[in-house]
Amino acid sequence: MGSTDSKLNFRKAVIQLTTKTQPVEATDDAFWDQFWADTTTTVQDVFALVPAAEIRAVREESPSNLATLCYKAVEKLVQGAESGCPTEREKQVILNCTCILSRILPYIFEDQDWRGFFWSTVPGAGRAGLDDDEGARPLAESLLLAIADLLFCPDFTVHSHRRGPDSVENMQSIDSCEYIWEAGVGFAQSPPLNYIHDLNRTELLRLLLTCFSEAMYLPSSTDNTVLNPWVTFFCSTENRHALPLFTSLLNVVCAYDPVGYGIPYNHLLFSDYREQLVEQAVQILIVTLEHDGGVPHRPPSPSSLEEHESAGPENLFVNYLSRIHREEDFDFVLKGLARLLTNPLTQTYLPNSTKKIQFHQELLVLFWKLCDFNKKFLFFVLKSSDVLDILVPILFYLNDARADQSRVGLMHIGVFILLLLSGERNFGVRLNKPYSVHVPMDIPVFTGTHADLLIVVFHKIITTGHQRLQPLFDCLLTIVVNVSPYLKSLSMVAANKLLHLLEAFSTSWFLFSVAQNHHLVFFLLEAFNNIIQYQFDGNCNLVYAIIRKRNVFHQLANLPSDPAAIQKALQRKRKSPDVISRTGSQETVSMEGSHPAVPAEPGTLKTSLVAIPGIEKLTEKSQVSEDGTMVSVPKTGRSQTAQSDQHAVVGTSDTESNSGRDNEVSGRSTDVFYTEAEMERRPLSSASSTSFWAPTPEWALSWKCKLPLQTIMRLLQVLVPQVEKICIDKGLTDESEILKFLQHGTLVGLLPVPHPILIRKYQANAGTAMWFRTYMWGVVYLRNVDPPIWYDTDVRLFEIQKM
């Protein structure tokens, strides 16, 4: 009954606020206390009892009352942070004020005229006992510092270290480094779990995330010097709790084990308050790590922490992340992230008996930030097979999301991470480890390595994914090229998949459809050349597949490029036969327990994304020297692309960057993978580009003469007669005998001089930074639905679309 009365009183207070036309004095405590003093409301109650229309009405018609409500709520938080909330009543006041501010702030941000309100000083609003300068703090700073203090408030959000019942801990002198929430990086003690503390932390972090969300209400911009003032202040030296809070957030995320003791269905029997806290913690981490303080990222200097902190407006969260260096800390973080990313893949005999987390997208962004800001962590990840514990779940998510347009952002972040990893030699070497886990995916059953898994999944994405994935094809094949010099033994399944991609991409109508399509052929040929030149001995399956499909290479070498042939190819486009005609019996069987990838349910919400830059802007070329070090290859202008070393120009763009293209429609057609009947039903994505671009003989010759076919043609010239002879002499019809012959063959001294290995390493740029910001806030928006913090507000960073 008390709870009902409490909600009724709160609702009455809201109605009074919306109906009062005259300003209510800030000193009228009897009126303002109705909102927080005598009520016990959950955040869900506050969202239900304070409708959006009423907040907007107060904002427009009684602005002074809305301003006073915000100021009074912040004042209560500041008072609580000073007193330490010794009584239960004070703790409830803090929670009520936190919920009210979480509800109101998005409506402050959506109105341009109100956005500066929290950064203004309120006359006479200085904290008692502080000098004038300190007293003139903007409301936003007071709010952020109060939240930081309250996140380390004994008996409210952390365990008390009091020695006796009468001793009181002074909030001003408390050393929050002793109150870090969880053992892990830089902290050894694991405090006992307290679900009340977890709930209180979650409410405060939700308010903090809402404060940071002003970025959602500003239009997208590639100007990275424009910083989020809320994040900038919170992650500055002004926040004395920056280090313990960063450590608490990271440790809480990486120590979390959703399975717990492994009792089946335990997640249905008990509420897991730690999961809510972990979700808020990982979202706070990725948002605070989005900016590195507007100054170029510098490697950590050997100077002391104090010296480093006085350097200016540097983002301390980025600073601390970049300076983690102990192997045991890296191990803790990597194993924690791998455990959580692998969780949704877990198979059990009892259906739905283990808890499945939903925040894998945030974890992928956090992993990206760790690799981006801390190169020592990246090298740690790659120095052992532990990187495969990250690779397998990423491939699972990519395969699972390939048909779902609402998860196109997940596809991008997964591919970006693999592109980043593929720029390092160790990643390619690690892929040679046999794949024995067999996570259920709807891909062909195969026996092989993690490299085979990667190729089979990429093939599935390219051939059966939706059209909005077309801008990623360059990235997918760049990853294959980067790892190809290190792949010791591809399976027959993976070899056939690569040859099938070449067969599909080298049809004349596909090559002549769009100006960039030939790049895909260059990438595949470069991958084949790398394997033949550097890993010939173990790759008899690929060599055999190349021999079987030798006509594809001969057709490429003799590709007609006269005007009549080009026109004929384009006319034949819509009558192209199904090029997925030959499927071995083993390829039709998917892994046991797998489910086919399905499109999004109708009505699913998704957020729009900005276009990604072209591959030539996403990567920079590095050449691997004889001692294994990488030497950057200078970018070549268009006039220089006709250089003699045909390998150096592989993938060089013949057109301007495609960064301006929209993600909705790409200029590349993948109808090559569909039957004639299916093609009739699918819109031709290349139609938009052919209306303003037409292939010419000169254009076709400009890249045809650079096709790196010499190595493969020499291989065919040597091996085809030998294979044909052995088949005739011994009457062979069995693949295994031919493979045995190829396995023991050699091409030493017969192939052209090996070309230098060319690696395309990911490089950050303004376009990808903007993409990450849009994607990250889109994920945060869609994941916070209980309560729906930003739902139905005027967000401008992206569009919310229904499938």
UniProtKB/TrEMBL annotation:
Residues 582-591, 637-658 have a biased composition (Polar residues). GO terms for cellular component: Golgi medial cisterna; Golgi trans cisterna; membrane. Residues 574-602, 621-667 are annotated as: Disordered. InterPro entries: Hid-1/Ecm30. This is HID1 domain containing. The gene is hid1a.
